[in-house]
Amino acid sequence: MPDARTDVAIVGGGLSGLALGRALSARGTEVLVLEASDRPGGVTWTEAREGRLLELGPQRIRPSGAVGELVEELGLGDELLLSPGELPLFVYRDGCLGEVPLSARALLRTELLSTAGKLRLLAEPLTRGALPGETVAHYLTRKLGREAYENLVGPLYGGLYGSNPSEMLVEASLGHVLRRFGVGRSLGLAVLGLARRRGRVPPPATFREGMAALPRSMARALGDRVRLQARVTALARENGGWRVTIGGGSAPAWAVRADRVAVTVPAPEAAPLLREVAPEVARHIGALTYNRLVVVHLLADRVLPGLGCQVSLAERDLATRGLTWNAPAFGPDPEAPKREREARAAREGVYTAFLGGAGREEVADLEEEAAAGLATDEFARITGEPARPILVSRVWMPAWDRTWKGAGALDLPRGLTVCAAWSERPGIPGRLSQAARLAERLAPAAP
Ligand SMILES: Cc1cc2nc3c(=O)[nH]c(=O)nc-3n(C[C@H](O)[C@H](O)[C@H](O)COP(=O)(O)OP(=O)(O)OC[C@H]3O[C@@H](n4cnc5c(N)ncnc54)[C@H](O)[C@@H]3O)c2cc1C
Questions:
Q1: Count of H helices and E strands in the chain?
Q2: Lowest mean pLDDT among 27-31, 127-131, 298-302, 394-398
């Protein structure tokens, strides 16, 4: 590959790198997105197996705000498969699946809390806001009581990261969410307000060809500004700019010269790249914990009604943290328009199990067959239904635990910047908004 030159070299072609590439290109800045693998998208990807479409990372999006705008800009509006309205979410506890209550009335009736647990919630507005150095587990237990923590908010929040809320600091994780939603003292009232607003946002959605349609379409729009099989192996300063080395070892190396470099890859992969040029930052991010999860796709005959379930933190002997029930939202629907029917058939009977993470680290080391067996057994225990595994894959997620303590502005050399899931909100809306803000900073719009 001949050497190349660009304004901004972007390391990594997941959603962060692609979103930054789009945002900078829209401002007339030349970019090259350098992606190590032979496809764009990173963790946001879909695999086909046995006539089914299986999501390896995010299972769905809500096409509102920046995500909705991106879908429209890419012309993917017609490709959306929408869930038929809001479906319930469950928590597994003590042999039962209890529906997550999303209104004051449902909270009164829920079987996930005892009468004492419900009464304890009434004290919440009297408790203090987050304390300095407090963990998420301590904060939620102090505010809501142990039952509501273990059976409701703990699994719902910790499940997002595969993390243990006892190891997550409010200031480094939940604090961002509390500030964004203007939660001061009363968490309970804010949550009920959010639940009321839920009906006003679009229902969960995916694309006919699965979530991979999003990065695929972003990469297609960027054309030859995305280079696949381009693993960045070194960053070095050169003549006031940067030299980005790609390949090396058994593959022939080539280089991109750039005025600026944006690193978007996971922290464990970013740390070695920064070791020479920003040793302090490399040390800090090299110590960030990632949770390793095993994702097992299962096929079952029965369609359980809902979006899925999380597992109560009190169920300590289960390796499963949560299950997505893919079929009720995006599966067969005789009422669906004809062009949707095939896409919906590709989700028939599909369930996605997430196992391992903090506290169950050994699960990530299981051989494929053992992981599949464990997921199948625990699926039967949680849902009461038999299933069979069709795909085992592995992902890692930033834990947002104590190792993020004190994470603030990174002291990077001039011309080097970061736009990554470990540096700001890790979800898809967070990735898009960080990319948009960074593009504005790197290439301000003409006044
Ligand atoms: C299982 C799972 C479920 C999720 N569910 C949701 C959800 O429901 N809703 C939501 O909003 N978010 C969800 N997320 C989070 C969201 O999907 C991710 O935060 C986001 O996709 C991360 O994108 P990224 O580009 O930052 O990182 P990644 O997707 O990890 O992409 C990084 C890319 O960099 C490449 N790379 C690595 N090293 C190099 C190198 N040296 N040179 C070049 N390229 C390199 C990798 O190959 C990869 O393509 C989920 C994440 C996971 C893992």
A1: 16, 18
A2: 127-131
